[in-house]
Write a structure and sequence with these properties.
The chain is 81% helix and 0% strand. Helix 6 runs antiparallel to helix 7. It starts with a helix and ends with a helix. The model has no long low-confidence stretch (mean pLDDT 91).
């Protein structure tokens, strides 16, 4: 926790002077955001994770798996902050995009489906979660 955060800040300081489109700078930002989240400092992590996702979309739109990972980090942070409606919107987007990129039966897509089901349950969307889970079980058996 604490060491991860210290290393994240050290990375950020090291690469801060680099151009915005420099990959290491973006990775350093991601490390800081994830370390803040891991240390339950989600209100501080949120703007960092939002900026990280925006940078990935702007400078590396072709790296769709990295964008999905950044979205997952952001959705988790939003859920931890109690912003479950926003997290659900992201989880839906993550699952749909993962299915389109990797296929419905890929392990990352199935994990995303599990996260989406969990988000639905937290929002008490029981009927939707039940229907969605049934569909995903049949897909995962294929």
């Amino acid at each position: 926790g604490t060491v991860m955060l210290a290393l994240g800040w050290a990375c950020w300081k090291m690469y801060l002077g680099r151009p915005d489109a420099h990959g290491w700078r973006n990775l350093a930002m991601e490390r800081v955001g994830n370390a803040l989240s891991a240390n339950k400092r989600n209100s501080e992590a949120l703007p960092v994770l939002e900026a990280n996702l925006a940078w990935r979309r702007r400078y590396w739109p072709q790296h769709e798996e990295d964008i999905l990972a950044a979205q997952c980090n952001l959705a988790s942070c939003l859920a931890d902050l109690g912003q479950r409606d926003k997290a659900l919107v992201l989880q839906r987007e993550i699952h749909a995009r993962s299915a389109a990129i990797k296929g419905a039966s890929h392990e990352h897509t199935i994990l995303g489906a599990t996260n989406l089901s969990s988000a639905m349950l937290h929002l008490r969307l029981f009927d939707e979660a039940k229907s969605f889970a049934r569909d995903q079980i049949s897909v995962s058996r294929q």
